[in-house]
Design a protein that fits this description.
heterodimer; A: 140 residues; alpha/beta; Rossmann fold; five-stranded parallel beta sheet; globular; B: 529 residues; TIM Barrel; 2 domains
């Protein structure tokens, strides 16, 4: 990595009425410790708000923290919103309710990476770096 | 359960054991360290499992099925929109309807929820927002022509910490406290057998607090309610006999037992010496337990069955009045039908096969447990005093003092799991590769689709009601809530009766306290203000 590479900027947010913030706060701290810039979007967001934050903050990756199954039903709207806004910033999902089966389903839908309860912080950081490197290479 | 008090080999058993002459150190005697009361032969805790899923009708069927399997009381949890006091058609709510609890938003939902259930026989514990939960049960009894005095059960009160951990309703603290105290005062008068002041230390402990922090913060909140009720001029003995604590049980079983013994003692002392209670029932605390979901793992979910079983034995020995246990699918969801069965059968095995119910406080007198009880007592009281010395509890809450405690606990737990300070089988020790982790995996991960039929149900319900009558009742609620000297419960019941929805009532409560009707969007207020 050269010194000119800007730090990875990641949006960490939660959808709908998913009320648990533990995972989001924990992963935000982990990513900051790993040298990333975290934009914390908090709870109670709908897809248009997520897309808008991603746009306004010009993030490299959108991270959704999920402790309820609501995210599964919001994904299409987020992808739709990103398409309308003409940005193809990668979307990643992580959370305690994300099973291996879910991972396969949402990766097939176009999610760039997915993390469940058995994934380690180191592994998550590594994977986010990979996703963002691919993204940056793609848009250059 | 056999009424014969003897061991499996026929050794006669006393109801309790003590080294002292007389009953000075008996269960059921001040300071109640050894139990709220002396158990009667054949008596046990109330067996129940956390339930509620989808529509009220579906949940009603679930309750009946659980009772047919031997459940003795109900513990009803609302889905996320219900817990937030938002209607199912709110844009934020539509994908969460009925997936993690029952969707309740209007009069007919409560009627469907309690349909055919014997209101005079069952105990209805509510993990619901207390005001609509109590009002809904009261209204159903009224419609059936039954006196509200017969109603039994409990309602959790979450006013102080709800915004800091996971139950944000976008209601200011003053309003949350008003809702708690009004509902407790109302129940004390109209539903004297109902535990309307259930201090729920379970939900905020799930942030990762230890047992001392759990009970210290529980007493901080409980004392905050009690002082607010006394300030309204309500006599301590009018409501204190129906105070309870719903606590958690982690995996350090002796500490958890000592915590409960110390909690009963601290409570008894506090009620007698500090709050001047005269009625012995005001000093004998009701304790119910929900075993810790946080100790349950997504990895090797079958291990959670063992954890739940051990926690159930510990809670039985601690002498709780009711329990529900988290089982194998806890890491992913509120319990499925299969998990209910495992939870209930686990409790029944403890109750009927292990003999631990035969003798009250069987660990009393153990050097270890007595010492641990004393230490818990001292540490809980010291932590309580430390927090209360920091200043006004409401101001501390608004400054984020408590939120910081919860956030620190979350970080501490994840660090401790990462570095192995806390051992968890299947997570940081004795783990196996994901592809080999099959047992009960599929059953744990089974999902529930949102019950979107509820969205059209509530839209039709609103369309077909008497609009003028509903608006007038909501106006009456608004006026009552704006007057600090009035109790909001009767007007709240009247609003439900006039077919206002829970989402609408919550919006009107917010407006009465100068807040926006719809905290998450731009829904218009039915009052036109």
């Amino acid at each position: 990595m050269t010194t000119h590479t800007p730090p990875i900027k990641v949006l960490v947010t939660i959808l709908g009425l998913d009320q648990h913030e533990v995972g989001a706060l924990a992963i935000a701290a982990t990513l900051r410790d790993a040298g990333m810039e975290v934009v914390y979007g908090g709870r109670f967001n709908l897809p248009p708000a997520v897309v808008n934050m991603a746009l306004q903050e010009d993030v490299d990756v959108i991270g959704i923290s999920a402790h309820s199954w609501e995210y599964l039903h919001f994904l299409d709207d987020i992808f739709e919103g990103l398409k309308e806004a003409e940005i193809d910033v990668p979307l990643i999902i992580g959370g305690s309710v994300v099973t291996d089966g879910d991972k396969a389903d949402i990766l097939a839908k176009g999610v760039a990476a997915a993390f469940g309860p058995t994934d380690t912080p180191d592994g998550i950081v590594r994977e986010i770096r990979r996703v963002v490197e691919d993204y940056r290479a793609r848009i250059e | 359960m056999s009424d014969l008090n003897q061991s499996h080999s026929g050794i006669p058993l006393d109801p309790f054991y003590t080294a002292e002459e007389g009953d000075g150190n008996a269960p059921g005697v001040f300071p109640y360290t050894r139990g709220k009361r002396l158990p009667r032969p054949g008596q046990s805790w109330i067996l129940r499992e956390l339930s509620g899923e989808g529509t009220a009708t579906r949940s009603n069927e679930q309750f009946k099925s659980l009772m047919a399997k031997g459940q003795q009381g109900l513990d009803i949890i609302g889905d996320t929109p219900t817990m937030h006091m938002l209607d199912p058609d709110h844009p934020h709510a539509i994908h969460a309807v009925g997936t993690q609890g029952v969707s309740l938003c209007c009069r007919t939902d409560f009627e469907d929820l309690y349909r055919d259930l014997p209101l005079d026989e069952l105990s209805f514990s509510q993990s619901l927002p207390s005001v609509p939960g109590i009002a809904g049960l009261y209204l159903v009894a009224k419609e059936r022509g039954m006196p509200s005095e017969i109603l039994r059960g409990s309602a959790i009160q979450l006013a102080l910490y709800e915004d800091d951990c996971s139950y944000s309703r976008h209601l200011p603290l003053k309003l949350r406290m008003r809702m708690a105290t009004d509902s407790v005062a109302f129940a004390a008068e109209k539903m004297p057998k109902f535990h309307a002041l259930m201090e729920d230390t379970y939900f905020f402990s799930e942030t990762g607090l230890d047992s001392v922090e759990e009970m210290a913060l529980g007493f901080v909140e409980l004392r905050y309610y009690i002082r607010a009720l006394l300030a309204k001029g309500i006599d301590i003995d009018a409501f204190a006999p129906r105070i309870g604590i719903l606590l958690t049980c982690r995996m350090d079983l002796f500490e958890e037992i000592a915590k409960i013994r110390a909690t009963r003692r601290i409570y008894a002392r506090m009620m007698k010496d500090e709050f001047g209670a005269k009625d012995p029932r005001s000093m004998a605390l009701t304790v119910t337990a929900h075993t810790s979901g946080l100790t349950m793992t997504a990895q090797q979910p079958v291990n959670n069955v063992a954890r739940g079983g051990m926690q159930a034995v510990a809670m039985a020995m601690a002498g709780v009045q009711a329990m529900e246990i988290s089982t194998f699918d806890e890491a992913y969801r509120t319990p499925s039908e299969d998990a209910h069965m495992v939870g209930l059968r686990t409790q029944q095995i403890v109750q009927l096969e292990t003999n631990v119910t035969k003798v009250a406080d069987p660990l009393g007198g153990s050097w270890y447990v007595e010492e641990l009880t004393d230490k818990m007592d001292q540490r809980i009281c010291a932590e309580l005093a430390r927090i209360e010395a920091k200043g006004d509890i409401g101001e501390l809450s608004e400054q984020g003092f408590f939120r910081q405690i919860f956030n620190n606990a979350m970080e501490r737990l994840s660090r401790d799991l990462e570095d192995g300070t806390v051992q968890r089988v299947g997570v940081n020790s004795h783990s196996i590769p994901n592809e080999e982790d099959h047992m009960l995996k599929e059953a744990s991960e089974k999902k529930t689709e949102p019950f979107r039929g509820q969205i059209t149900h509530i839209q039709n319900f609103r369309k077909n009601r008497d609009q003028d009558k509903c608006k007038q009742a909501l106006g009456g609620l608004y006026d009552a809530v704006r007057d600090e000297n009035r109790n909001m419960m009767e007007p709240y019941v009247a609003a439900l009766e006039a077919d206002a929805t829970i989402g609408e009532t919550a919006g009107v409560l917010r407006q009465a306290y100068g807040q926006k009707y719809d905290p998450l969007g731009n829904l218009p207020s039915p009052l036109g203000i």
